[in-house]
Amino acid sequence: MLDRRAFLCGSMVLLATGGCRSPKREIVVGCKNFTEQVILGEIFARMLEHACRVPVLRRFYLAGTYICQQAILAGRIDVYPEYTGTALAAVLKKKGAGDASRVYGDVKREYWQKFDLAVMPPLGFNNSFAMVMRGEDAGRLRITKLSQLAPYAPAIKLGVGYEFLERADGYHGLVHTYDLKFAGEPRVMDLGLLYRALLNHTVDIVAGSNTDGLIAALGLAVLEDDRHYFPPYDAVPIVRPPMLQEFPEATAAFDRLAGRISAEQMRQMNYAVDGEKRDEAVVARAFLEQQKLI
Length: 294
What we know:
A five-stranded mixed β-sheet has the order 7-6-8-5-9. Helix 2 crosses helix 11 and helix 4 packs across helix 5 (100-115). Helix 2 (35-52) links the parallel strand 1 (27-30) and strand 2 (56-59). Mean pLDDT is 91; it is low at 1-22. It has two domains: 26-126 and 234-290, 3-Layer(aba) Sandwich (D-Maltodextrin-Binding Protein, domain 2), CATH 3.40.190; 129-223, D-Maltodextrin-Binding Protein, domain 2, CATH 3.40.190. By secondary structure, the protein is of the alpha/beta class. The protein has helices spanning 2-16, 35-52, 65-73, 84-91, 100-115, 135-141, 171-178, 194-199, 214-217, 241-246, 249-257, 263-274, 280-290, and strands at 27-30, 56-59, 79-83, 118-119, 129-134, 158-160, 187-188, 205-209, 220-223, 235-239.
């Protein structure tokens, strides 16, 4: 009789404590719809799987900045890679000012105050917008800087991604800063099609990214932003604090990743996918193993 009572009491204690706890949920990683973002999303996912030992769902190809921002605010994703200059201009609607550390500090503070979102330490590279031309055209015109482009702009067709037209750090500020009048309206297209359009002579200059692996591989030329129009775009993880509270190991994982990806390493990974047609997950895993992060 005593054994039975002890068993019942023990069962009730288990139900009142561990039995009523909900199992740990999965972590959801998101990203935008271009190669670099998918690689970074995969790096985040594998780091979190390794550190937290829970299922990690990949919700990739979420269009652009605005969709990712809405997804993380709604709790549909827990983390995604962002860039400080993009966060400052496209989300906070502010002009870029100061050096990289100041922009990072401003974004970190305002994301916490306005959105209850945590901005983790920078990954180590700056992915600024890059105005890219065919190498032979830049050589023929003898231009290396954006300030030299104005006399030739009326004969040049511009290609951009969807967000570039609307962003505070995008098209309108660029043409005003450098007094540019291109041939017709900008051709708007998916980011993955920009360099194909450039090579096919559909456009003559595109708003690409500093870490695009195809720039060197295709013999393209980046014009220097000599009037410093574009703000710093340090890559950072944006995270929902409840995820960090539920999985404390995640904070340590992001701290380990801080400063570990250089611009050259990011270019190489981008080229491995875009140029060599390797799978993003394979490229991300190879990087993490090489760096001894997993």
